[in-house]
Fold this protein.
Amino acid sequence: MKRIGFLTSGGDCQSLNATMRGVAKTLYENVEDVEIIGILDGYKGLIYGNYKKLGPRDFSGILTEGGTIIGTSRQPFKLMREPDENGMDKVKAMKNNYTKWKLDCLVILGGNGTHKTANLLREEGLNVVTLPKTIDNDLFGTDMTFGFQSAVNIATAAIDNIHTTAASHGRVFIVEIMGHSVGWLTLHAGIAGGADIVLIPEIPYDTDKVVDAINKRTEQGKKFSILAVAEGAISIQDSELSKKDLKKKMKMYPSISYMLGAEIEEKTGQEIRITVPGHTQRGGIPCPYDRVISTQLGAEAAKLIMAEKYGYMVGFKNNEIVPVPLKDVAGKIKAVDPKSSIIKQAKALGICFGD
Ligand code: F6P
């Protein structure tokens, strides 16, 4: 008999259900007596004791369903050791519920913050297996996170759609793509969508270089330019500001694209438009790639549970699904290397990164 708790935490993405289905189907298929509970709304459910029983039927028909059937929430890691507003010790409460529910293991699906808390629970003695979720693809220890490719498809489609209208009107368009700390999504969608300028947090940009790239296109008789700009893109000048001063400056604009757009308009005299696909990038159905990788990751997580091999994230490295010790993942970020071949190749064909 095995009793497993599923928990999805942090921002949602397209392939959460497909991944849980992969774990559940493998367990139902191979373990004689298995009970799965869905812990509701992320770590909140584990702290406050909210869950629902799940059965094989709950995992049927959800391969293509976006979002998460058990809900999610953001519970900052840095507050986990702080008592809640009623003085409740959250870590103690999570451990108590784990024991009360007689769980053999928690299966936790999430991104960076989620992994820090999962590792904390491991250190506290709970059995944990995690799965790498995020459209940002910034989890350390895995080449790919599920959700990323689906988001790339949506962000690319946004750039594709902008292409036709930008060309008709001869305008400069900025498409702002999700990613506060890393630029994987912007880089991939930018290349796939044929953006002329790609700005990511890992490569602070010089506004004049961006303006030069636009002017060069104009001189070449190209009527429009498209910029793929990550939410967390930052200019060289602004990267030298203190956090406080940067926050103050950014308050004047809804987001980085509006600030950059105003600067470009002033310096080029060209008409600028800004498009922010926002949370649509996390919505809708998972793409086939994500469905496949989610199924593989899920099946491998179930195998770890069957072997009672706990304390691992299931990752994807060098085309193999592999267990990665949770302690080696938590607290680290996988950022785009500005010297990587993908950046060099993009630069070789003339994509401007503003550096
Ligand atoms: O981590 C995923 C992500 O979608 C980021 O790309 C984005 O910056 C952030 O979440 C948005 O968070 P929220 O859903 O809390 O607005």
Observations:
- The pocket of 6-O-phosphono-beta-D-fructofuranose is lined by residues 11, 74, 111, 134-136, 178-180, 231, 282 (CB under 6 Å).
